[in-house]
């Protein structure tokens, strides 16, 4: 993990976006004035055409890390938390603006994904994966199982990227 002043702190899990990328995307959104966690999630859903909807369990911890790094401030109003970019956050974002725009472009490209993947053998395989994961991870799976499943998925992603 990079130092708190060098980069957005990253998480451990492998997702569509790693922690650094999600952090940059959130900073970019906050630069544009969107301030509530729900609104940030909704914006990502819209930009991706509904193909990327990060859970609150991913977004809020990342926002908390950005607050801890002093890139963002938070003000609680009732049940809602309003986030605002700080000067340090704006400076950090400017240093990584090209990467942030690249992450946003990847998210926005997802809106064009869909119909051709949903049909045929790839769609079937994706549905089989979803079913297998749902069955295997039902209840409260232990950490070793979660790490093993994540490793298998990461290996598959790596192989597909090399095609």
TrEMBL record:
Q: Which UniProt keywords apply?
A: Plasmid
Report whether Metal-binding shows up as a keyword of the record. no
Q: Which SUPFAM superfamilies match?
A: Winged helix' DNA-binding domain (SSF46785)
Q: Name one Pfam family in it.
A: PadR
Query: Which domain of life, per UniProt?
Result: Bacteria
Q: What is this protein called?
A: Transcriptional regulator, PadR family
């Amino acid at each position: 993990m990079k130092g708190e002043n060098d980069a957005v702190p990253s998480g451990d899990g492998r997702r569509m976006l790693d922690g650094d990328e999600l952090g940059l995307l959130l900073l970019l959104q906050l630069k544009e004035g969107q301030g509530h966690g729900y609104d940030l999630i909704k914006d990502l859903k819209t930009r991706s055409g509904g193909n990327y909807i990060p859970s609150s369990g991913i977004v809020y911890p990342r926002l908390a890390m950005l607050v801890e790094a002093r890139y963002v401030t938070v003000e609680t109003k009732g049940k809602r938390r309003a986030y605002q970019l700080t000067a340090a956050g704006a400076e950090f974002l400017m240093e990584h603006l090209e990467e942030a725009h690249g992450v946003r472009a990847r998210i926005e490209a997802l809106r064009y994904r869909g119909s051709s993947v949903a049909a045929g053998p790839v769609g079937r395989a994706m549905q089989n994966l979803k079913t297998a994961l749902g069955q295997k991870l039902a209840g409260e799976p232990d950490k070793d199982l979660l790490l093993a499943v994540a490793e298998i998925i990461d290996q598959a992603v790596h192989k597909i990227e090399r095609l």
